[in-house]
Amino acid sequence: MPLRKLKPTTAATRYYSISTFEEITKTKPEKSLLGPMKKSGGRNSYGRVTSRHRGGGHKRRYRIIDFKRDKHDILAKVTAIEYDPNRATRIALVQYVDGEKRYILAPEGLKVNDQIVAGNEVEIKIGNAMPLKAIPVNTQIHNIEMREGKGGQVARSAGNFATVQAKEGDYVLLKFPSGEIRNIRSGCYATIGMLGNLDHQKISVGKAGRSRWLGIRSHVRGVAMNPVDHPMGGGEGKTSGGGHPVSPWGQKSKGLKTRKKKKSSSKYIVKRRK
Questions:
Q1: Single pTM value for the model
Q2: Residue 118 · residue 137 · CB < 8 Å
Q3: What are the angstrom distances between the C-alpha of 200 and each of 2, 102, 105, 170, 181?
Q4: Could you tell me the domains of the chain?
Q5: pLDDT in single tens digits along all 274 residues of the chain
Q6: How many other β-carbons are positioned within 10 Å of the β-carbon of residue 89?
Q7: Do residues 56 and 215 make contact, with C-beta atoms less than 8 angstroms apart?
Q8: What distance, in Å, lies between the first and last C-alpha atoms of the chain?
Q9: Using an 8 Å Cβ cutoff, are 78 and 127 in contact?
Q10: DSSP per residue over 79-99, as a string?
Q11: How far is CA 179 from each of CA 103, 160, 274, rounded to the nearest angstrom?
């Protein structure tokens, strides 16, 4: 997916880049697979901001994605590759031989009219889903379940994939996009291939207004605030070496490990993420 740079006719367009969208084959979503999306503005059920710098943005509708791939041993044909405003990767509209339509995450190389299938004993082919125990070592996979039947939770963003490292007993050793190496139950499902839209991270937003269209509000630095608003605020002139960078509530914000030491799933982690 190449990017398109705009002519620098204004200050904003000088650094502006957008996707060419050349892989998109259908511009209107499938009506039966849409759901409502309510904006939270970063607020919880009490109306308090728990996730800062969120709000506004263009109205969106949710695309119902099949993360479980639980329609086993039934062939499906890819009818379209579509844009999804709610995620970085593209989505594929597939139609099963019984007539049902579903959305799946579109891996790199998946094209219209390709046939895919999910099941315990299916071909190792891009877009096919199967249990980890059936996938050969060194295969790139995405949309990986952490618990059997729960649906894919790992490697779901543009250009992401995990790699099968080894198999031992009831577990398969995977290397995740974060660099973490971890054991997952061999009955968990995953999909073959890496996700498409590889150039997504190279897109330059170009101007502040474009971030606002995406629902991202401006991030004010703590050192630019007053002492009443932030632990790093205030001071005559710029302060150097004033202390460790912290959040507005005093928690260290660079390099602090926040994972619970007694978390039960830690026994499955062979190597922590970078």
A1: 0.93
A2: no
A3: 9, 24, 15, 36, 25
A4: 20-201 (2.40.50.140), 220-236+244-274 (4.10.950.10)
A5: 689 999 999 998 999 999 999 999 999 999 999 999 999 999 999 999 999 999 999 999 999 999 999 999 999 999 999 999 999 999 999 999 999 999 999 999 999 999 999 999 999 999 999 999 999 999 999 999 999 999 999 999 999 999 999 999 999 999 999 999 999 999 999 999 999 999 999 999 999 999 999 999 999 999 999 999 999 999 888 877 678 999 999 999 999 999 999 999 999 999 998 7
A6: 22
A7: yes
A8: 28
A9: yes
A10: EEEE--TTSSS-EEEEEETTS
A11: 28, 12, 6
3-state secondary structure of 199: helix
Distance of CA 111 to the CA centre of its chain: 21
Characterise 86 by phi-psi region: left (phi > 0), alpha (psi -120 to 50), beta (else): alpha
Vertex 199 angle, CA 196 and 204, to 5°: 145
Residue 52, token pair as written in the block: 């800062």
Element (H, E) at 210: helix 208-213
- Residue 53 corresponds to which tokens in the numbers above? 């710098």
Distance of CA 58 to the CA centre of its chain: 19
Cβ within 8 Å of residue 117, ≥6 positions away: 73, 74, 75, 76, 123, 128, 129
Q: Could you tell me the CA-to-CA distances from 65 to 32, 103, 143, 217 in Å, in that order?
A: 12, 5, 11, 27
**CA-to-CA separations, 219 to 43, 52, 242, in angstroms, rounded:** 16, 8, 21
